[in-house]
Amino acid sequence: MLHNYTEITARILKIANLETTDPKLMESKFTHNRRDGPSSMDAGTTMNETENAMLESSSESITIRAYGRLKQDIISGKLAPSQKLKIENLRRVYGVGSSPIREALSLLTSDHLVERIDQRGFKVAPVSEGEFAELLKTRCWLESIALQQSILLGSDAWEEQVVLASYRLSRMPRFSAEDRAVANPNWETAHKHFHMTLIAECGSSIMLRFCNQLYDQNIRYRQLSAKKAYPERDIAEEHNAICDAVLARDSTKAVNLLVGHYQNTGDFVLKQLPK
Predict the structure, then answer these.
(1) pTM to 2 decimal places
(2) Tens digits of per-residue pLDDT, 157-167?
(3) How many Cβ atoms from other residues are within 10 Å of residue 218's Cβ?
């Protein structure tokens, strides 16, 4: 078990043939790697990136690509809540046939990001204060259990992945340099990966799928609320505190910090939603 950030970072660097005990050298080597592109041990690979890589050469790749693009546009708010999704319009926008679009929309109904309109087509799932409060509560419940189990069952290799995910997240600016109301998509990618890595060793693939789905539904609400500048808050310090508690295998503290982290965000989002 590793309790020290420098120790676990040194182990990560050793795996990458970059062994050093000099913190400044660690930083320079990480920075060099980032310029050269993602490494083979890049724990920042997101679920969307993995889906695209795995399915690119498959017969279903067109549908999956359409699914991924539609999903991203719904989560980001580009496709607004309750907006009708006309097959012909979507076919032109995304440059694919009608069948892949229909199949992609059907997949998105399983994610609760799209709803069927009787027999007349599809629309983006609406949003409400009540639904968000329920999503937040459920996410806190499930991830509390998943984090406890990951701390109990997780290996040293998992700890290394947690630290690496935390490090990569810390290197990303959260907002656009020009506008604090505009999120940096690279930060969003690293943020999701950090939170999913925390619970990755819970021992239940079913729970992980639920948590991944709840993350996407929650992030849609946060993106919609981001039209107003996010209040000053040291998110990086909150992440560091969670990471430290996880590495110390202090499940009670880690869970309390994680739930508090989500509730702080939830309080802001709820204030922006229609009553």
Answers:
(1) 0.73
(2) 999 999 999 99
(3) 20
